[in-house]
């Protein structure tokens, strides 16, 4: 999944305009190159599908948001009798070519349209989808997967992946520390005191944006705390209006917390053991990276300092596809603080 940047002034767009912006962003080669080149993502999906070969053989599969059709072809390779590859963006034209190039036209049918508007000729045994966005829910297609499950999946059918988990941990972003300290070094370099820029820089950097960055293991200050589970067999669209939970962490040692880090993992059920695709800082890098939430002020901590609170993820009022994250947090004996974050896009505003 990708994050889009729009130059439009902040305004509330109707759902049709939101959808057009979303699907247009998938018409370009760059995002598909990024996703296919993400070997952790693509190989995990391939293995997750092939490990369910017995559930696939001779069965009907629906690929929600098929993109270039690679997951649909994996399903056909795993023995699916028929795969309906549903894709709303114009990349669907390339999917048709790729299916033909791989001689899969007899088993993979590419359908252009949104999942909510297409009419399939039959119920399906399996739903597969790579629906996850940044911080799991930003620009995600989970609503479409839920719609597909309720309308098209046979009772007892299989969903891949079938479980999602969300995690949070406090971090010390050393790059931000260096950037803020930079202004105090200018005088020694050039003879001009620019230390007054530090507060301005802090406001610009430690703002209300959800920043998508790679977080190094060294920056993470505690074991992760899981704050939410989503079971794709039971989760409802109403549930997605507020995905929330509590968290509690104990710091590893003396440091300074200047941000929280949020990431997700999804699980593919299998006959032997589940297969997990994790976007954790402790796991190999994926194109999702991690979502970083900067505090207004850094807070010093020591070994075993408790960091606890509650986190709530919900759709922006301006664009249902865009996520807002609200965090109430307490560090040690400090007073509880709150902050609300959103991914900058030119029109969505969670404040």
Structure keywords:
disordered N terminus; single chain; five-stranded parallel beta sheet; alpha/beta; disordered C terminus; 10 helices; elongated
How would you sum up this structure, described in words?
- The chain has 351 residues and is α/β, with parallel strands linked by helices.
- It is 25% helix and 32% strand.
- The protein contains 10 helices and 15 strands.
- The strands form 3 sheets. Strands 6, 7, 8, 10, 11 and 12 form a 6-stranded antiparallel sheet that branches.
- The two termini are 24 Å apart.
- The relative contact order is 0.16.
- The N terminus and C terminus are likely disordered.
End-to-end separation? 24 Å
Major sheet details: 6 strands, antiparallel
Name the beta content range.
25-35%
Question: What shape does the CA trace take?
Answer: elongated
Residue share in helices? 10-25%
Radius of gyration: 22 Å
Poorly predicted tracts of residues:
1-12, 346-351
Summarize the structure.
With 351 residues, this protein is an alpha/beta fold. Helix content is 25%, strand content 32%.
Secondary-structure blueprint of this entry?
Blueprint: H1 15-24, H2 29-37, H3 39-50, H4 53-56, E1 60-64, H5 70-77, E2 82-87, H6 92-101, E3 108-112, E4 124-128, H7 142-152, E5 153-160, E6 163-171, H8 174-182, H9 186-190, H10 197-205, E7 210-213, E8 225-231, E9 243-250, E10 255-268, E11 275-278, E12 290-301, E13 306-315, E14 323-331, E15 337-342
Parallel strand pairs: 1-2, 1-4, 2-3, 4-5
Antiparallel strand pairs: 6-8, 6-10, 7-12, 9-13, 10-11, 10-12, 13-14, 14-15
């Amino acid at each position: 999944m990708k994050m889009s940047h729009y130059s439009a002034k902040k305004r509330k767009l109707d759902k049709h305009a939101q959808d057009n912006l979303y699907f247009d962003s998938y018409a370009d080669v760059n995002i598909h190159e990024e996703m296919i080149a993400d070997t952790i993502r693509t190989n995990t999906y391939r293995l997750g599908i092939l490990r369910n070969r017995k559930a696939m053989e001779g069965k009907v599969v629906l690929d929600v948001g098929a993109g270039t059709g690679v997951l649909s072809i994996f399903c056909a390779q795993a023995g699916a009798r028929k795969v309906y590859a549903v894709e709303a963006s114009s990349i669907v034209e390339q999917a048709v070519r790729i299916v033909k190039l791989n001689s899969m036209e007899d088993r993979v049918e590419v359908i252009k349209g949104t999942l909510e508007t297409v009419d399939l000729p039959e119920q399906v045994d399996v739903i597969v989808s790579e629906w996850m966005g940044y911080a799991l829910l930003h620009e995600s297609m989970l609503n479409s997967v839920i719609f597909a499950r309720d309308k098209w999946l046979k009772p007892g059918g299989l969903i891949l992946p079938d479980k999602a988990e969300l995690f949070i941990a406090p971090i010390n972003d050393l790059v931000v520390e260096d950037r803020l300290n930079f202004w105090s070094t200018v005088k020694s370099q050039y003879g001009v005191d620019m230390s007054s820029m530090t507060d301005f820089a802090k406001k610009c950097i430690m703002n209300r944006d959800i920043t998508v960055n790679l977080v190094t293991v060294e920056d993470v200050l505690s074991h992760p705390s899981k704050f939410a589970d989503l079971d794709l067999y039971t989760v409802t669209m109403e549930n997605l209006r507020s995905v929330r939970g509590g968290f509690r962490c104990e710091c590893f040692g003396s440091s300074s917390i200047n941000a929280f880090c949020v990431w997700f993992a999804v699980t593919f059920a299998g006959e032997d053991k589940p297969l997990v695709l994790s976007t954790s800082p402790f796991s190999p890098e994926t194109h999702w990276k991690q979502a970083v939430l900067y505090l207004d002020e850094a807070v010093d901590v020591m070994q075993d300092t408790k960091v606890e609170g509650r986190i709530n993820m919900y759709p922006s009022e301006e664009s249902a596809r865009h996520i807002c994250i609200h965090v109430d947090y307490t560090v040690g004996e400090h007073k509880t603080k709150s902050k609300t974050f959103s991914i900058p896009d030119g029109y969505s505003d969670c404040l």
